[in-house]
Specification:
The chain has 458 residues and is an alpha/beta fold. It folds into two domains: 3-167, NAD(P)-binding Rossmann-like Domain (Rossmann fold, 3-Layer(aba) Sandwich); 172-393 and 411-451, Dihydrodipicolinate Reductase, domain 2. It contains 13 helices and 16 strands. The protein has helices at 14-29, 49-57, 83-97, 114-123, 146-156, 175-186, 188-191, 216-241, 250-262, 334-339, 395-404, 414-424, 440-448; strands at residues 3-9, 37-43, 73-77, 101-107, 134-138, 165-167, 199-207, 264-266, 272-276, 294-301, 311-316, 323-330, 349-355, 359-367, 375-383, 435-437. The strands form two sheets. Strands 7, 8, 9, 10, 11, 12, 13, 14, 15 and 16 form a ten-stranded mixed β-sheet that branches. The protein has a six-stranded parallel β-sheet with strand order 3-2-1-4-5-6, with helices on one face. Helix 1 (14-29) packs across helix 11 (395-404), helix 5 (146-156) packs antiparallel against helix 12 and helix 8 packs across helix 9. Bound molecules: 6-O-phosphono-beta-D-glucopyranose. 6-O-phosphono-beta-D-glucopyranose (BG6) is lined by residues 140, 208, 227, 324, 355.
Length: 458
């Protein structure tokens, strides 16, 4: 493999600590990355190599063995606004690694720095437009609204071609998200029932136990809507509702996802927004902030397959557990009701566990064992993470590997970003309706107090 130099901007940030470094350690350990790959860690902090290592050590779990990649990481301090610093970075890369390399960049920074860094690396000659050996990852969120995303994208087009731009949504790197297509299209039993004829409603639920941690200044600008719905939840919606692809080609999958995103709308009236009690005392949060840390939306996908099937998008922080799951509620089965009129046969339910439980549960009716004929609700369970075949890679591991190997399938195209901002941008909420919740029970009861909201399963 060609020598790879991966330069990460934002190397002292939260993402580097919690996701990128652990992913790099695992990739080097498993041999997916080897001595041909080096990582340059860029930040403005006045650290030397040793100080940077100590800085990482303070946050990376000892069980991960940071030491094992110590000699792969090189710290580089620079001022993002100083063109000379980009020149120095270029010199450093050339002197250390030569010219026959693929020079890749990861922008683990807020979107307001995307264009500045793109311009800096481009003007310094660190990347050449159209040269596929130079590719750049942009962390989410890609912009703060459709307008800002469009403006960023238009400016990036000055420096890169679309094939050099990798927009990340790490949910696409999760194994169970990739499994959605296999489940849907690899199993006739699901594919033939995957429509409004059989499906009553769908819940896409991402609950988190933790709060916003030390990301206050970023989070308060985003809220749950821009932090989670615009990217992760809408990507899940697209994979669940898209039409069958003709092939697994990334252009074909993206095309089908964009088609359903363009047909997706959210009912503004039924939106519920919440904020956990204690949010206002978090570091970096203005005392009068009305940013939402919880959101529940009812979406519709206006295609012949899914017209009028309610799709609930629910996500929030400081809830009872960390879980991401998709629940397909199938309709009641009239034949079953006729045959077992006194036994209330359950409606089938398919639960796709994305994280922390990775697997699938299918709720079915069976007969109880023994001499009676009673129906019993039973669940067929498949535990994906329990499988002994291979080690289940963490999302960032998969995506970093794909990026380095120039495989864009699990990254989002500009058209998908555009379509998803256009879905969330029109949603607004009235400050007075914000629910302040102490915990999940409090939230549940406050939602129940709202008339007609028995439709929400939380
Ligand atoms: C990130 C959000 O994209 O996803 C975070 O910015 C959120 O706020 C995280 O906590 C959740 O990801 P995961 O993989 O832990 O479910």
């Amino acid at each position: 493999m060609m020598k790879t130099v991966l330069t990460i901007f934002g190397a002292t940030g939260n993402l580097m600590h919690i996701k990128l470094v652990p992913a790099l350690i695992r990739l080097f350990k498993s041999g997916h990355l080897n001595n041909d790959t080096s990582v340059i860690c860029v930040s403005r902090r006045d650290y030397n190599q040793e100080m940077y290592y100590e800085h990482l050590l303070s946050s990376v779990s000892p069980s991960l063995d940071l030491e094992s990649i110590k000699n792969k990481l090189t710290y580089f301090q620079m001022d993002l606004q100083n063109p000379e610093d980009y020149q120095n970075l270029k010199k450093k890369i050339e002197l250390t690694y030569g010219n026959d390399i693929q020079s890749l960049f990861y922008l683990a920074v807020s979107p307001e720095f995307f264009v500045e860094i793109a311009q800096g690396i481009s003007q310094a000659g660190l990347v050449e437009k159209g040269n596929i050996r130079n590719r750049v990852v942009f962390e989410k969120p890609f912009g703060h609204s459709f307008e800002s995303a469009k403006s960023i994208n238009t400016q990036l087009e000055n420096y890169f071609t679309e094939s050099q731009i990798y927009r990340i949504d790490h949910y696409l790197g999760k194994d169970m998200i990739q499994n959605i297509l296999v489940m849907r299209f690899g199993n006739i039993v699901f594919e033939n029932n995957w429509s409004r004829d059989s499906i009553e409603k769908i819940d896409i639920l991402v609950k988190e136990h933790s709060g916003i941690g030390n990301r206050g200044s970023y989070y308060d600008q985003s809220g749950a809507m821009n932090d989670m719905v615009q990217s992760h939840l809408l990507q899940m919606l697209a994979l669940i509702t898209m039409e069958p692809p003709k092939s697994l080609d990334s252009a074909e999958i993206r095309k089908n996802k964009i088609e359903v995103l363009k047909k997706t709308t959210i009912d503004n009236q039924s939106a519920i927004f919440g904020q956990y009690i204690g949010y206002l005392s978090e570091q970096g949060i203005p005392s009068d902030s009305s940013t939402e840390t919880f959101v529940c939306l009812k979406a519709q996908v206006d295609t012949p397959r899914f017209k009028d099937v309610p799709i609930y998008l629910i996500t929030g922080k400081k809830l009872d557990e960390k879980i991401a799951e998709i629940i397909i509620h199938f309709k009641e089965h009239t034949l079953a009701n006729t045959l077992w009129p006194n036994q209330k046969p359950l409606h089938n339910q398919l639960v796709i566990g994305v994280s922390e439980y990775e697997g699938v549960r299918f709720q079915m009716n069976f007969k109880t064992p023994g001499l009676n004929d009673n129906l019993v609700e039973t669940s067929l369970d498949y535990c994906h993470s329990c499988q002994k075949i291979g080690n289940n890679p963490e999302a960032y591991e998969k995506l970093l590997k794909d990026f380095i190997e120039n495989t864009p399938t699990l990254f989002t195209s500009w058209d998908e970003i555009e379509a998803s901002w256009k879905i969330v941008d029109p949603i607004d909420f009235i400050r007075e309706t914000l629910i302040h919740y102490a915990d999940i029970d409090d939230l549940r009861s406050k939602i129940r107090e709202r008339k007609g909201r028995e439709d929400i399963d939380l």
